[in-house]
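Sample A.
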Amino acid sequence: MSDLNVMTAAEMAATKAAVMDQVPGPEIQGQSPLHHADLDSLAKVGPKQGGVHLREHKLLGHLTLRLNPENDDQLAAAERVLGVALPLQPLTSVENGSYSVRWMSPDEWLILVPGLEAFDVESKFRDEMGGHYSLVNSSGGSTVLELSGPDVVELLKRCTPIDLHPKLFPVGKVVSTVFAKSSAIIRRTGEQRFELVIRRSFSDYIWLWLQETSREFGLVVKV
């Protein structure tokens, strides 16, 4: 075999090391896309009762993974890193503690982890995963809103064309869809609880939309 076709251990290690920690040092304060809305203060002084409750799960790690779902070695590697198997059924999701994985397409998954763990998870993928795959850290580009309460389904009916009946949209289901005049990745996490992954560039618009659309139900901001 030609020496040109042989990759040394050092070269393989250098390839796996091509990853950068995007989390700033402690001297820099992280700010979510809705930092300017000061939701923490609104939670303290705002209404305590209402039909819709909103909470931002800010500064999470967002990792987009793409691989061949028929490659058993890659699936096993992903499970070793995450502690849970990737969901292979369309529009489903799985959880393992503070980790959640959303099926986005036959070869794509959105992985959410605590923000300070994103680099460690990314590094573990580089160490465990072989073959051709893609892992992109897009943590700064999105945020997560949790919507819950007795009127949350009625609220969402005014925001998205998706049928939210429990028989068609059970707990654990996830869709990427139109939301108001923007878009969101919606996951049902309880009978009256949903998570929305929204883009940073539309976060302010969606926050304003939710305030207006929830007027008849009453909006409670939580921390």
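Sample B, a different protein:
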Amino acid sequence: MTSMELHVEGIGLWSPRLGDFAALRALLAGEAPAASDAPIAALLPANERRRAPGSVRLAVEVAGQALGMGGYDPTALACVFASAHGDQSITDEICATLARAPTELSPTRFHHSVHNASAGYWTIATGCRAPSSAMCAGAHTFGAALLEAATQALAEQRPVLLVCSDTAGSGPLLEMTGCGSAFGCALLLTPEAGANALARLRLRMADDCPAPTPAPAALRDEAAGNPCAAALPLLALLATRGGVCRVGCATAMDLLVDVEVAD
């Protein structure tokens, strides 16, 4: 296929050590980043924020950061939400309840366990009536979601918000997934460069599939065990001087991403 060209106009990021994209830039520049607070998810109304699970607050937090950079109207902003595992803590709780006392299963907890919970909270909180979707592709979740969001942005000629996040596992699920730490990121992608353009991306498919580009050594702690941290090599290029990275998007297919950072 020919390459796809689009632009980044907003970036969100959260991990236990990095509270936003500015903290990532500081770390890669050799500076000590500011302390990272828990995800605030300020765009959620107070009542919804109190009852939202950690997976939703993480996704909404990074989505809000990217939206704040780009300055787009969220009511008309198409969005792609992606997660490899969904909310592992709630899934573990539901499984334990089913094993112990099935009739005590909480409808609210089930509501929070579904994979599109974050997209639902986001679209309701922002009044978004544009298309939204929820994706999962295991270890390739970020790459698959990036391909989906880029395709939508170019095919529909509209900005698309990409949000990719996973929280830490618990119980037997943690033993299976190995995802012991939360990580979330968001990219606001546009088909044309606007006034707030941060970088230009060129994406093309590759089926030779050597190992994906590893995260820089300074970011290995963020990358450990969390599938969505596959975004870190791309985020590191966006935070520095650009370059090329390889991101897995399927078992036998990679995305080659050429990043040109705006002056």
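Observation for Sample B: Residues 54-70 form the longest helix (17 residues).
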